[in-house]
Design brief:
single chain, 321 residues, mainly alpha, 14 helices, 52% helix, 3% strand
Length: 321
């Protein structure tokens, strides 16, 4: 949907949005933020082409949202201000303190992971005619074994899977950050068997996880199925403490992957600071700060590991915008 800006900076805003659209960022978020800023400038009757910290502070003040959301909006405006600077337009912006993440993901124990995989593998016994029942164990192993987001996994086609080299090319990624993800030998073997199963008649351009008509499955199908397994196993609802922001869910597998990757690196003699940059890239994060929130996991089975990681991260992660 095209937005028509109306403030004194309408021309610059329209030009900047067009630039954002062709760059590797979520232009809709920028469009929403800057449309609101445009309305504010127009309603305030500002008729001089400039952007001041006082103006931005008053604009941010009318948002009744979390500090982290305000910080995100300020980041959008800061980058727009940089563009204005290239045009010779004066800008100054307020500073917001860095907001530490209070999100603490749920981490499945090793015993819970074993039960989850066993329950997923048993789906074919109770739903023998369901294709999704056969796909689900494969999906879980990709999510856990590669740390992919659910949306990234269900967007994979066989063109993205190199079974000879054992790597996945993630093209449909968050923030358009495409990346190459190595697989374990065992996961490569499992995907090879899945790819060559005659009952599925897989083609190179096919989605790994598809409906009968060939379209990719939507996230909700897997969220509901995973949730039903959690309830069946007595995992979901068993932890009602406010300690867990979201509780156990399918995205928790990505957090399990992160923690287990650090523990594996420690056993193999790699230091924490050697591992962080590589894992951040592997996960498709835009910076180390995004990786930090994945290390906030707390679970009784991993208390000592969390203390170790917390001591390392104290001075590792840089301040960023």
């Amino acid at each position: 949907m095209k937005i028509y800006f109306k403030s004194v900076l309408r021309g610059e805003l329209a030009q900047y949005i067009e630039l954002v659209k062709i760059s590797a960022v979520d232009h809709k978020a920028y469009q929403c933020t800057l449309a609101d800023l445009d309305s504010f400038l127009f309603d305030e009757g500002i008729n001089e082409k400039k952007l001041t910290s006082e103006q931005i502070s008053r604009w941010l003040g009318h948002f009744d949202v979390k500090p982290s959301t305000k910080q995100s909006k300020l980041t959008h405006v800061r980058r727009f201000a940089g563009y204005l600077g290239t045009l010779g337009i004066k800008t100054s912006l307020p500073e917001l303190p860095r907001i530490p993440s209070d999100f603490e993901p749920y981490i499945f124990t090793i015993e819970e992971m074993e039960r989850l995989f066993e329950a997923a593998d048993d789906l074919v016994l109770t739903r023998s005619s369901s294709r999704i029942a056969a796909e689900f164990p494969i999906l879980l192993r990709i999510l856990y074994g590669c740390g992919l987001r659910l949306g990234e996994a269900i967007s994979l086609t066989w063109d993205d899977i190199n079974l000879r080299e054992g790597v996945i090319t993630v093209r449909k990624a968050k923030n358009q950050k495409q990346r190459i993800v190595p697989m374990s030998v065992e996961l490569t073997r499992i995907l090879t068997l899945y790819r060559n199963a005659p009952c599925y008649a897989m083609q190179d351009h096919d989605f790994l996880f598809k409906k009968e008509d060939g379209a990719k499955r939507d996230k909700s199908s897997y969220w509901h199925l995973f949730d039903s397994i959690l309830c069946e196993l007595g995992i979901k609802g068993a932890h009602n403490s406010k300690l867990y922001s979201r509780g156990p869910c399918i995205h928790s597998l990505r957090h399990v992957f992160v923690l287990h990757s650090f523990l594996k690196a420690e056993v193999e003699g790699r230091t924490f600071m050697e591992t962080v940059p590589f894992l951040s890239t592997y996960l498709g994060h835009s910076g180390l700060r995004e990786t930090e929130k994945y290390l906030n996991a707390r679970h009784e089975m991993y208390r000592e590991s969390h203390k170790t990681i917390a001591s390392y991260t104290k001075d590792v992660f840089p301040e960023d915008d």
